[in-house]
Amino acid sequence: MSVLAPTDPDLVRELERLLAPERVLSEPIQRVAFASDASFYRLIPQAVVRPVALAEVQALFRLARNRRIPLTVRAGGTSLSGQAVSDGILVDIARHWRRVEVLDGGARVRVQPGVIGATVNAVLRPHGVKIGPDPASIASCMMGGILANNSSGMCCGVAQNSYHTLESLTFVLPNGLAIDTAAPDAQARFAAGAPELAAGLVRLKQRIEADPALVARIRGKYRAKNTTGYALNAFLDHQRAVDIFRHLLIGSEGTLAFIAEAVLRTVPDLPAKRTGMLYFATIQAAADAIAPLAAAGAAAVEIMDRAALRSVERQKGAPALLATLGADAAALLVEFHGRDVATADALLAAARPALLDLALTHPVAFTADAYEQAALWKIRKGMFPSVGAVRARGTSVILEDVAFPIERMAEAITDLHTLFRRHGYADAIIFGHAKDGNLHFVVSQGFADPDEIERYRRFIADLVELVVGRYDGVLKAEHGTGRNMAPFVEAEWGPELYAVMRAAKHLADPDGILNPGVVINPHADAHLRNLKSLPVVEDEVDMCIECGYCEAKCPSRDLSLTPRQRIVVRREQARLRDTGGDPALLAALDDRYGWMALDTCATDGLCATACPVDIDTGKLVKRLRHAALTPFARGVANRLARSFATVEAGSKIALRLARGVAAVIGTRGMNTLAGSVRDASGAPVPGWHPRMPDSAPAMPRTDDATPAAIYVPACLTRTFASHGDRPLPEVLVDLARRAGQPVRIPSDIAGACCGMPFGSKGYREAHAIAADDFVERLWRWSEQGRLPVVIDTTACTQTARDVTLLSPLNQGRMATLTVLDAIEFVHDRLLPALTPAKQPGAVALHPTCSAVKLGLADKLARIAGACSERADVPLAYGCCGFAGDLGLLVPELTASATALEAAEIRAGDHVGHYSCGRTCELGMEEATGKAYTSFLYLVERATRPNQR
Question: For the whole model, what pTM was predicted?
């Protein structure tokens, strides 16, 4: 296992001369954080660097050559085979290489390697196109990885992968030569700047073409998905050396050059879909159906064996019939795509004869309903995490991908089952892209002791013999060779073509500095080196498979640590404690973990929405914050929770006093004063927000004797005034009356709190006190649940619905209560009774994290769309990081979290900016300079009587 050795100070100084010091990460906690990717390998870099321009990449290459130090480029770090870890210099391009440019009305797209694949598709969507590759990790993986691994996916097949949709590249060779292959003089510059490489590639092409058997071998291997080794088809498909090389870079896993930019041809984004699940008695019957379905025009044909289906039987929303299937059953998830409804229906109609000939165990109904389609795909996509969620603590999840001839798929699956039984993988499941002969299998594997490692060695040896020896199949169909299959590239391709690959690597990277050990590796046991052990720590930590899907959702990803990195460092702390490791290193990690992991976590929980095993790292952070509290601090918090009306009144007084002082000494003076108090007392005294609102006025009187609902303005609403021309409670009261759904605000509303201000800081007991009191009030106000309760701040709605800390009595009451968010109340109950007039111009929306987690973001968008000419949610939308008062305590978190979204807003032309939570509105105001307010003001204005 990789060990954290001190970084050479001279190396750090040299790197800081080449880049700005803040873009050189050499602290132990930073190096540990980048030691893992989504694979089961682990290497601790000597430093992590973040270049911003080609010149800096060229300078890094010079340094690496001069020092003979390995250099690995990393994008999203979602690679499954160890391509994105290094014990040398790790070049993180996720931060600064995010540009997307649509070309020719969407026919082509220019991308940098640090932009997420799903973001590219979102930019392309208005043009009715998308990129060809569609990996399952597209919401997290980045274009650098998609290109470098030649990623494909469920519908991409071979024809639409990066290799076949590539138009041009800008790359940098290890010798520093930068080439834009679209330039007219690209070949001349390539031949002049890298003469040995250019001539050598031509010689390799001639060597291959002189042997018909090698030509036939290459042609045959690339009829199916294949990412084992380098893209040898480049030597046959292209004539010029520069064209051979740009295609050789696709799937090269960062071992030949740095891909700085790519231009891809797009493919149609066919929005009309017809989806169905087909069940069969045996895997053979399912396999026999693949070819007819593919011939009938199915865009996706996903196969699942009985073990895979069994793994999701208890998944929420899974069909009950899964549990009734026979022991040998299998299924195919089939989808037809059309440019419009008529085309999709015609495709399905044309496929009916083929469907009637299939040996189905249950009638199939193809659905066009988006929610039903999502439920079917959830079954398929839930299979990988199903194994991850139930694996033994301390074990890794291994997701491998192989490919077989389609006509032998049933036989191959049977053989894989035999292999799993032979090596004791009782939890193994198989699923995959049947149309391409591409199978994935998932097993859990420990690496903590030699016996487990030996079991894995024997399994891989037998797997290689099965895939290559028996079926002449593909060891790596779409995940890239990586460290796991590098020792077996020659076994798949043979000595002659493996020699071509080795020669290509030496020609491009004669010093062997780029990602050594990946693709080409001389060690027969390379797949058993640098294995990642997973010490047992906490529930959230132990469940984590380190896939990195969470990182794109994290507001602190560009400032401190991501959820995955918080867990990676937590595991390193456990390793050091368990093994009696370097106490100074452990102390350094412990010291920095506070700010890097705990103080800068917004605990927004969006990470769980992307996590395959539903880990909410925010809950871990809250528990760690709780553990760090002193008994005195907990006691104070408990007393405050019991007298929250006093806290509320005091907050309003303090806000008025602070505004008065700020008017005299200014924002800088206020923050200096707050810092002094914070340093002297050790208390988390917040800074001053230059857009801090006035204190809210008193609540309006609502004496309606027969209300349709009880309206509970959140404590934030009762404390902070909004930007609207009237107080927010008045707006909602008027809206409800206008729609014939009058609401009542309780006269004793003061002091009501869901407990969120305490819970987010780890004050669990105080949170429970406030939450129980809140539910008791709701029970009384709602007349024991007879009336629904409406809350105007979505974060408070979410907190109120969490019954975890409630007493058993109040848990029962919550089961009876109907707690509605204002978004639901307006969308479901008020708008149908109103006639909104679309207000002129476009409005910008910022759905809060809670709105996303509660599934209310779409309803918010529909409300705004009904009330305005156009409602926009920025492409770069994400958590603002304000998190209650965290934006005041750590303003740099909000600045970092909102940087991309704020730039998009500032470049837009919106007449209004709306959200559904006051503190998030404050955060967005600070980031954008625009006034954000509640969406209720938009609805009220659009439904005024004089608007109709």
Answer: 0.93
